[in-house]
C-alpha cells in the first residue's frame, strides 16, 4: 500500500498536522465544557448518554466504516468485478442484525443503567464465568481489531506523504493525539471527532468517484472493456462462490452488529428517537459508501488494466494520483480524501480503544479486582490499561512474531460467540446459565481451532460453525437442565418491560 | 419504558428479510450471463441493487413502524441528570 504520490511532501504533512490539531482542539473543547466527566463512568464512556442525532449517526458511521473500507474494498472490486456489488448488502445486513436486539437492549440499558456490553451479561446471568469469559472474548476481538487499525494508519500516512513521513513516526503521532483527546473528553470527544472524520471521509469518497468518472470514463466504458477482455468480472458469479457469500452475509449480520463498540453507541443515545433515526440513516449509507467505492474499483479495471494482486492494492492511490494532477480543485480534494482515510482509521481505532478501556476498568477491575474503587479510579485504570494495550499492540505491529500469527487474525470468530448469550438472553427466560457458559467456551475453542487449521466445511466460515455448536449447546442445555421457577421469575424481572 | 412493538416479534418482517436475503445473492441467474448491460451495469447487478434498496426500505419501515415504546423513564432520568449537574 506504499502509494508514491506526486503530491505527497509538504501538502501531506500540512493536512495531517491540521487534522491532528483539529482533533486535539475538539478534545480540549470537550474537556473544558464537561469538567466532571472524569468522575463518572456514564459521562466518560457514554458521553453522559446524551449523544444527539447527528453526532450519534456519524459516530456509528465512522466506527463501522474504517479507512480499510476504502483502501481495501476498491481493489477487491477491481479483482472480482461486479460480484463485489455484494459489499452493499454486506453493510445493510449489519443493520438487520441490530433489529434482532437493539430495541430491547436499548430499553433495558435505560432500565438498568448499562455502561458496557458486559454489564448486560452480568445483569442477566449473574455468573462470574460468563461475565469474565464474555469480557475476555470482547477484549481479544477488540485488541486484534485495534492492531489492524494501527497497521493501517502507518501504511496510509506513509503512502499519503509519499514516504516523507516514515511509517513509525506517523503511527506514533496519530496515536498520541488519539490518546490525548480520548483521555480529555472520553466518549464525547470520540464522537465529536468521529463526526468530523465521517464528513471528511464521505466528501473524499464522493469527489474520488466523480473524478474517476470524469478522467477515466464512466461505467459503460469499463463494461465494454470487461466484455471484451474479462467477461468473468461482468457475469453472474459461479455457484461455488455463492455459498461463501451466504455464510459471509450471515456472519456479518450477527457478528458486526454485536461489535462491543457498536453496542456502546446504542447505550449512548440521547433518547430513543435519536437512536432510531441514526439507525435509519445507517441503513442507507452502504449505497454511498461501499457502493461508491465499488464503482471506483470497477472504473479502475479500465483505467489501470492487468494489475496483479499486490499492485491492485495500490489502486486508490494510483487513481487519486492521476485525478490530483488534473487541476487545483482535485489536487486539494484528493489531499482531503487521504486525510479522510487516515481520519477514518483513527476514528475506528478510538472507538475500539474506548470500549476496550471500559471493559477493563468497569467489568474486570471494578467488578472483580477492586469492587470498592471509585468511578474516578476505575476511569484512571481504564486510561492506563488503554495506553498499555496500545503499546503492546504497537510492538506487535512493528515486530510481528514469526509463528502463531493466526492468533492475531481472530476477531469476528470470537466476538460472534457471545451472540447467543447476548441475544437469546434478551428474550428467553428459560435460558440456562451453565449451558450458555459451556456453549460460549466450546464455540470459541472450535472456531479458533478451525481457523488455525484452515478448515471451512461446505465453504462456511469457522466462526459460524463455532456459533452453531454454541447455539445447540445453549438451547439443548436449557431444555435438558431446566432453570428453577425462582430463576425464571428473576430473569423475567430483568428482561421484562 | 414499555415496549409496545418490537421488530423481532413480527414474523412477517422476518419472512420478508428471509426472502430478501435469498434474493440478495445471484444464484438464480445463469452463471456467466451478463446481457443486457444497462448504463454499464449488467442486468443481474441491477436486480441485486434493487434487492438492496428493498432491504434498506424494509429496515426503515421496521424501525419506524415496528419499534414503538412509551418513553417515560428516559425523560425522567434526564431531568434527574440535569438536577445533579
UniProtKB/TrEMBL annotation, chain A:
Predominant place of localization: membrane
Family that this chain belongs to: Belongs to the sodium:solute symporter (SSF) (TC 2.A.21) family.
Record flagged with keyword Cell membrane: yes
InterPro entries on file: Na/Glc_symporter_sf, Na/solute_symporter, Sodium:Solute_Symporter
Species the sequence originates in: Virgibacillus massiliensis
Transmembrane segments: 6-32, 44-64, 84-108, 129-147, 167-186, 198-219, 239-259, 279-304, 329-359, 380-399, 405-427, 434-453, 459-481
GO MF entry, a single one: symporter activity
Gene3D superfamilies for this protein: Sodium/glucose cotransporter (1.20.1730.10)
Pfam family membership, one: SSF
Protein's name in the database: Pantothenate permease
Keywords: Cell membrane, Ion transport, Membrane, Sodium, Sodium transport, Symport, Transmembrane, Transmembrane helix, Transport
GO cellular component assignments: plasma membrane
Catalytic activity: L-proline(in) + Na(+)(in) = L-proline(out) + Na(+)(out)
Automatic annotation (TrEMBL), chain B:
Protein origin, superkingdom: Bacteria
Keywords per UniProt: Membrane, Transmembrane, Transmembrane helix
Transmembrane segments: 12-29, 41-63
Protein name as it appears in the record: DUF3311 domain-containing protein
Lineage: Bacteria, Bacillati, Bacillota, Bacilli, Bacillales
Amino acid at each position: 500500500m506504499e502509494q508514491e504520490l506526486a503530491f505527497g511532501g509538504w501538502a501531506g504533512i500540512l493536512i495531517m498536522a491540521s487534522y491532528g490539531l483539529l482533533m486535539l482542539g475538539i478534545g480540549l473543547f470537550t474537556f473544558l465544557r464537561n469538567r466532571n466527566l472524569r468522575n463518572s463512568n456514564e459521562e466518560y464512556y457514554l458521553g453522559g448518554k446524551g449523544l444527539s442525532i447527528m453526532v450519534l449517526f456519524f459516530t456509528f458511521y465512522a466506527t463501522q466504516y474504517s479507512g480499510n473500507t476504502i483502501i481495501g474494498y476498491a481493489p477487491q472490486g477491481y479483482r472480482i468485478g461486479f460480484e463485489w456489488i455484494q459489499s452493499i448488502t454486506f453493510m445493510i445486513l449489519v443493520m438487520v442484525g441490530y433489529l434482532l436486539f437493539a430495541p430491547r437492549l436499548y430499553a433495558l440499558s435505560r432500565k438498568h443503567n448499562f455502561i458496557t456490553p458486559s454489564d448486560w451479561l452480568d445483569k442477566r446471568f449473574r455468573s462470574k464465568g460468563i461475565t469474565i469469559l464474555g469480557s475476555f472474548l470482547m477484549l481479544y476481538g477488540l485488541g486484534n481489531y485495534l492492531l489492524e487499525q494501527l497497521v493501517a494508519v502507518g501504511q496510509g500516512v506513509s503512502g499519503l506523504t509519499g514516504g516523507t513521513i516514515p511509517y513509525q513516526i506517523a503511527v506514533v503521532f496519530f496515536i498520541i493525539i488519539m490518546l490525548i483527546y480520548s483521555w480529555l473528553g472520553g466518549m464525547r470527544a470520540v464522537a465529536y471527532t468521529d463526526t468530523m472524520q465521517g464528513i471528511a471521509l464521505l466528501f473524499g469518497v464522493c469527489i474520488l468517484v466523480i473524478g474517476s468518472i470524469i478522467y477515466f470514463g464512466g461505467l459503460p466504458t469499463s463494461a465494454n472493456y470487461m466484455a471484451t477482455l474479462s467477461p468473468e468480472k461482468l457475469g453472474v458469479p459461479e455457484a461455488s462462490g455463492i455459498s461463501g457469500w451466504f455464510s459471509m452475509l450471515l456472519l456479518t449480520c450477527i457478528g458486526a452488529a454485536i461489535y462491543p463498540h457498536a453496542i456502546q453507541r446504542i447505550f449512548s443515545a440521547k433518547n430513543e428517537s435519536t437512536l432510531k433515526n441514526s439507525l435509519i440513516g445507517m441503513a442507507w449509507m452502504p449505497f454511498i459508501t461501499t457502493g461508491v467505492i465499488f464503482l471506483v474499483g470497477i472504473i479502475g479495471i479500465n483505467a489501470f488494466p492487468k494489475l496483479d494482486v499486490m499492485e491492485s492494492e495500490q489502486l486508490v492511490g494510483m487513481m487519486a494520483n492521476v485525478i490530483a494532477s488534473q487541476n487545483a480543485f482535485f489536487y486539494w480534494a484528493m489531499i482531503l480524501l487521504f486525510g479522510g482515510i487516515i481520519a477514518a482509521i483513527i476514528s475506528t481505532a478510538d472507538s475500539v480503544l474506548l470500549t476496550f478501556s471500559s471493559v477493563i476498568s468497569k467489568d474486570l477491575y471494578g467488578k472483580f479486582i477492586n469492587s470498592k474503587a471509585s468511578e474516578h479510579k476505575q476511569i484512571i485504570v481504564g486510561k492506563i490499561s488503554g495506553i498499555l494495550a496500545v503499546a503492546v499492540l504497537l510492538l506487535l505491529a512493528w515486530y510481528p512474531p514469526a509463528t502463531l500469527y493466526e492468533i492475531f487474525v481472530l476477531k469476528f470468530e470470537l466476538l460472534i460467540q457471545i451472540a447467543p448469550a447476548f441475544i437469546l438472553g434478551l428474550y428467553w427466560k428459560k435460558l440456562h446459565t451453565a449451558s450458555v457458559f459451556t456453549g460460549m467456551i466450546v464455540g470459541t475453542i472450535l472456531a479458533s481451532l478451525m481457523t488455525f487449521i484452515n478448515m471451512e466445511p461446505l465453504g462456511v466460515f469457522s466462526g459460524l460453525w463455532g456459533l452453531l455448536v454454541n447455539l445447540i449447546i445453549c438451547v439443548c442445555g436449557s431444555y435438558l437442565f431446566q432453570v428453577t421457577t425462582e430463576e425464571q421469575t428473576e430473569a423475567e424481572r430483568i428482561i421484562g418491560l | 419504558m414499555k415496549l409496545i412493538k418490537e421488530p423481532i416479534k413480527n414474523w412477517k418482517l422476518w419472512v420478508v428479510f428471509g426472502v430478501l436475503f435469498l434474493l440478495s445473492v445471484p444464484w438464480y441467474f445463469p452463471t456467466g450471463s451478463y446481457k443486457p448491460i444497462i448504463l454499464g451495469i449488467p442486468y443481474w447487478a441491477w436486480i441485486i441493487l434493487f434487492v438492496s434498496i428493498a432491504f434498506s426500505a424494509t429496515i426503515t419501515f421496521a424501525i419506524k413502524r415496528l419499534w414503538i415504546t412509551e418513553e417515560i423513564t428516559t425523560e425522567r432520568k434526564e431531568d434527574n441528570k440535569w438536577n445533579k449537574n
